[in-house]
């Protein structure tokens, strides 16, 4: 579904990504792991069209989208759930969700999709009229996930979805990711909780200093002595 080759990206004179290559298969969970500053978020922003690559190619469902604007990527079925959730705090839960269907391809049938999101996240239905800024961090993450689903994505980009959450909410987020995969969604996950991320990943890529240092099935990286020592504290 997604193929990235030779991806480079910079912030001004500082190069952050160096010839990054990876693929995401349809119906899979693919995980990017690595320390802070390894380049995970920059990859996500490059895929979403928020950071312009300086070199390389991004192909989504066979189409070269390297220079395609971000709104066109969303309309084509690629959706970013950003780090930090970034819900609109002064708007209600339902208003936040409906904004997720703003792309033309998602507008038709958005009421049906809203009902499906409420079925998947009953807490959001209970709080549909509440201001998003008054929700807990875990509830806001559920809202961010629901807003992403409203776009009817073919590929969901999740950037650090468990950041700052209590352990019980971390568990719920990972359970939701598994449920979404089982429902047929394709997910690219950038996550610092490497152990759990590798346990559920079909394929994983370890990033170090803007480069892919290691790749393979999630279980294979989880069993790697180097990964266990450097990233899992084992």
From TrEMBL:
Organism: Pseudooceanicola atlanticus
InterPro entries the UniProt entry points to: AAA+_ATPase (IPR003593), ABC_transporter-like_ATP-bd (IPR003439), ABC_transporter-like_CS (IPR017871), BCAA_Transport_ATP-bd_LivF (IPR052156), P-loop_NTPase (IPR027417)
ABC transporter domain location: 2-234
Gene Ontology BP, a term: L-amino acid transport
Name of a matching Pfam family: ABC_tran
Keyword Nucleotide-binding: yes
UniProt superkingdom: Bacteria
Protein family membership: Belongs to the ABC transporter superfamily.
GO MF term (any one): branched-chain amino acid transmembrane transporter activity
PANTHER family: HIGH-AFFINITY BRANCHED-CHAIN AMINO ACID TRANSPORT ATP-BINDING PROTEIN LIVF
Keywords: Amino-acid transport, ATP-binding, Nucleotide-binding, Transport
Gene3D superfamilies hit by this protein: P-loop containing nucleotide triphosphate hydrolases
Name of the protein in its database record: ABC transporter domain-containing protein
